[in-house]
Amino acid sequence: MMKKALVPVLACGMLLAMSGSVMAADDLTLATGGTTGTYYAVGGVMATVLNPLLEQSSLTVTSTGASKANIQMIDDEDANLAIVQNDVMYYAYTGTDLFADEGTYDTFSAVAGLYDETVQIVTCDPSIETVADLKGKSVSVGDAGSGTEFNARQILGAYDMTFDDVKITNASFGDSAENLKDGKIDAAFIVAGAPTTAVVDLATMKDVHLVQLDEEHIAKLQEDYDFFTKTVIPAGTYKGVDEDATTVSVRATLIASTEVSEEAVYELLKAMFDNQDALIAGHAKFEFLNLEDAVKGISVPFHAGAVKYYEEQGITVE
To answer: Is 317 inside a domain boundary?
Structure first.
């Protein structure tokens, strides 16, 4: 099974909760994203902070191809938990868009919305100012089959463009940044919490620019895809980016296999909220974890353990 092969990831600082030589009841594999993306960093903090506190489970974090791959891993029982985009989660549950050829996936359920994932169109070419300027350019649209790839297709569509209008490459966030640095591509779509490690590192070596979306095209995009929200990336988010950049976001969501016990999910969710300060100390994205937003934008059923926790907090979910 793939779970055994994933154990070496612990050498990267992901800790198992142990008491002497006794492991927690269930070793849950948490599927994240590329090693330079926010999913992987957030998952690592969850494991480091929460594993010593959990009795029902322990978390083993693994790097993956992100949202679509994560849902497939849960279905294949190669992962028990995952962080995914809320739009991709919806496509999987309804068998649409990214999952139109595969049909529906009903082996996962929602646990909590974590934070907004910002669509960042990054370039080192100052002449690329708008999405329309990408025509004819070499553009990375994230890993093949990822939510980033689909978001790129949707955004280009709002500008009456398709993948045929650009020179598409598929690459992880880290590889995209490296290719931008080396001049191998002109721009890259990166859908992740901002700041994103790969872009932070790139900005230390080259001048980076963020391609903005205008109000007209954001409105057009939202007519077709209501899971997008208008977002502003503040000036100073990256070195040398001195002006606010208007774009859109989706939402990072924690999901669980329906096979994970109610007790394990309840304990995990309670530990996250009870120890939010420690999580924030590990990664700033946990500042956006709150009860109201945790249940927003969720278009699939919640896990029974999550339902139990939220109802105790006076929040009714399905």
So the answer is: no
Each residue of 191-248: pLDDT tens digit?
A: 988 889 899 999 999 999 999 999 999 999 999 887 888 899 999 999 999 999 999 9
Q: How far apart are CA 316 and CA 295, in angstroms?
A: 9
Chain position carrying tokens 């679509």: 68
Whether the CB-CB separation of 246 and 216 falls below 8 Å is answered with: no
Say whether both 99 and 124 belong to one domain.
Answer: no
Report residue 153: phi and psi, to 5°. -65, -40
Would the pTM count as exceeding 0.85? no
Q: Helices 262-274 and 304-312, interaxial angle, to 10°?
A: 40
Is residue 262, in this structure, part of any structural domain at all? yes
* Contact of 308 with 270, CB cutoff 8 Å: no
| Residue 43 in tokens | 């998952």
Tokens 């954001």 label which residue?
Answer: 218
Same domain, 70 and 54: yes
User: Considering the domain boundaries, does residue 318 fall inside one?
Assistant: no
Q: What proportions of the chain, in percent to the nearest 5, are helix, strand and coil?
A: 40, 25, 35
Residue 21 lies in a domain: yes
Over the Cα atoms of the chain, what is R_g? 19
Which CATH number do you get for residue 27? 3.40.190.10
At residue 222, what is the residue type?
Answer: Q
Does 20 have pLDDT greater than 80?
A: no
| Alpha carbons 8 and 23: distance in angstroms, whole number | 17
